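Box 3.1 — From sequence to structure: ABC1 protein At2g40090
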Amino acid sequence: MATRSLWGARTKLALSATALIGGGAAANVATSDDPSMTLKLYTTVPPRLIRDAMTATAIAFDYEYSLWGLPEGSSEREKTKHEVHLRSARKLQELCFSNGGIYIKLGQHLGQLEYLVPQEYVQTMRDSMLNKCPVSSYEQVCEVVKKELGDTPDTIFAEFDPVPIASASLAQVHVARNHDGKKVAVKVQHTHMTDTAAADCATVDFIVNTLHWIFPSFDYRWLIDEMRESLPKELDFINEAQNSETCLENFQKLSPHIAAYVYAPKVYWNLSTSKLLTMEFMDGAEVNDVKTIKRLGIRPDEVARLVSETFAEMMFKHGFVHCDPHAANLLVRPLPYSGKSILGKKKPQLILLDHGLYKELDFETRINYAKLWKALIFADANAIKENSAKLGAGEDLYALFAGILTMRPWNRVIDPAVDHLVIQGSESDRSELQMYASQYFSQISELLRRLPRVILLMLKTNDCLRSVSNALLQVPSLETFMIIGRVSSEAVIEAKLSQKKSFLRWLSAWLDKILLEARLFTMQVALWLLQGRKSLSWRN
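Predicted structure (token representation):
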């Protein structure tokens, strides 16, 4: 019976792939406005789709066959499931590298969805996808530069290094000098992205939907919807350049107190197009490179505070959020034109790179999200439930939503202890979170289906920032949560003041502000006492 069911699933998938590849290819090439491009697609896409279908079939078959007959909750089933997760993650990794392009992007995205997908997938993708991206040949780079700017790199620039200093899923970066002698970074889109991006989206969509049809519990259609919306924006480098300028303008207008501490490279508009972006070259340490940061005379804990405040301001006050803040996109350097502090340390400046993926939060979503984080920081169960429902989680999955945002179980989320959201990073903590992810897999899938895509990107952003903070601090810290609590509360108060003016509304907002300062001061005192007790226990 099991074999017949599995054979039926494999047959469905194979027939669907064959149907998509076949029928009408030659006619489409003949009648196309661009026959050479259409032919290129028809010779490129079928092998990729066949690889997709074979990988999806192998993964589905492995899960069904390996877990068949093993009792739910048994140690044997859990051990087997771990092995299948690992084998399947490696198959998926191999598929991403074979197909390249948006598949690398998809793998990177999965690697950042900690505790939302099995840990074996997260670790496999995280260990490989950020550091092993494809590299276009210099001939391909020349082809793009000539097509976009009208001549070869050696003519357009005074100097152009043919070897890229970095390569990502969609593009690679070369160091050059313009004819004014300025050192610049030239971001060149991989040529195959233009040829296959739309078709790759379609094939990935097909595979995910087919798998959901065969195995209804496998529902990652939300990820495809997000990719379909985000990818065209990420492939448009003019959009990326505009995002970088809007980001800095927001800090200058809405967050002037930290505007000098946040920077994005200057764009050379005369040397930029939708597929090629020329920017000021930036020197700095990657945000997780603690040794280099210290060597620059900067304290890592100050960098952690700056990163937390920068993104809290974006999320809760600007409503325009950089949604790809992994370590390679965040550089740190000493704040220009500043001296040393009393302790002899330099102030940090955060440099934001790769502005292709931003999300805008409308006023209502932004304030509800700020209210939710305020409630999470201050352990307000009723407000957590209310604002989770407003953001789409419903009244049945609010506890799960709170757990995903904070990486804490519900009993810790509503614990009044000052450090209730701090993850200790112990093995038991990690095991508990992974157990919850496995136990509530179907509920997590349902929650992700319900939430607006903009909130899904906030989840990804949170995961990136959590990883950065852990690398910088290397010990559990409450300060990040205190910053989030302060900025989210300020955003809620400012929203109240911006609404219809009245003396009572003004008075209510100012009382809220006084209460906020009192609560934050109480938390700070409790934090000092807690740290003092821990220090004494360590000495003893």
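Summary of the box: Residues 503-539 form the longest helix (37 residues).
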